[in-house]
Amino acid sequence: MLDTWAPLLGGLVLLMAGGELLVRGAVQAAERIGISPLVIGLTLVGFGTSMPELVTSVQAGLDGSPGIAYGNIVGSNIANILLIAGISALICPMLIARSALRRDAVAMLAVAAGFAALAAVLPMGRAAGAGLVALLVAYIWFVIRQERAAADGGAIHDKSAALAAADPGLAPDHGGARLVLPLVIALAGLALVVAGGSLLVDGAVALARGFGVSETVIGLTIVAVGTSAPELVTSVIAALKRQGDVAFGNVVGSNIYNILGIGGVTAAIAPSHVPPEIVGFDAPVMVAVSLALVIFAATGLRIGRREGAALVAGYGGYLWMLWP
Questions:
Q1: Where is the Sodium/calcium exchanger membrane region domain (predicted)?
Q2: Of 74, 139, 231, 260, which sits 20 to 30 A from 55 (CA to CA)?
């Protein structure tokens, strides 16, 4: 039994450690060469907490395990909303900015619905992957333009703010150190992330075979929750600091990154079909819970503890329906 779990747990540890080193080094390197903190936050730091999902899904796709690759993406989005947003709201009710609801939460719902529809009618090939990545680039460009003009925050800004609050060492420091050390740190982190992703996928496949459970179920549950650990930690810390709006933005921003960025890169590098069980059940669940989060946020621009309890209970129900 230990031999079955050891690669999976070891992979998660390497992913978490490597992801932090990668973001820390990349942020410091970008700061040294004069990239603005806003752009750093919305790109390098924004991708930071999504790096475990990215490497794991790409590795699974290359290994011929689309159930793990797309189960990780869809399962992470479901866990982000039901589990992570639910726990965060239980700790501290979320106050939702109207701009975050109109732009970012609606964008999250739209990309979830678009991905579900695309997966149902087309294979996730390189053209589809390139289209998803192009949409993410356009979205980030649009947000950067808006935030430079209005400085009103936003979901992907809150995603980076939550990570910086959890570990101030990941925030731009405006220091004057040389460029070499940050690059070495980033490369070391990248090596750990790649090694961790490979271990995690191997462990997930072995676990599925050992328990007689499909790879898709493992991807939707254990792998998805494991790779969402950074979002859980950063959102809980934001909630404990009574920054419910940041916790909300972190979840919404992560879901947008997961579908457009991770789904797009995975499809571009390792084209495949999304497994029928995900298309028929889990992708519609992702759309439904995204809609529920938008409705909860729109009613009074607040997600209270009762809504948080309903979200967490919903995740328990989802696992009960999913696990054989």
A1: 8-144, 183-322
A2: 139
- What domain count does the chain have? 1
Interval 208-240: pLDDT, tens: 777 788 889 888 988 888 888 777 877 887 788
Instruction: List the one residue out of 67, 129, 78 whose CA is nearest residue 108.
Output: 78
Question: Could you report the per-residue pLDDT of 93-140, keeping only the tens digit for each?
Answer: 888 878 778 888 899 999 999 999 999 999 999 999 999 999 999 988
Domain range for 44 = 2-322
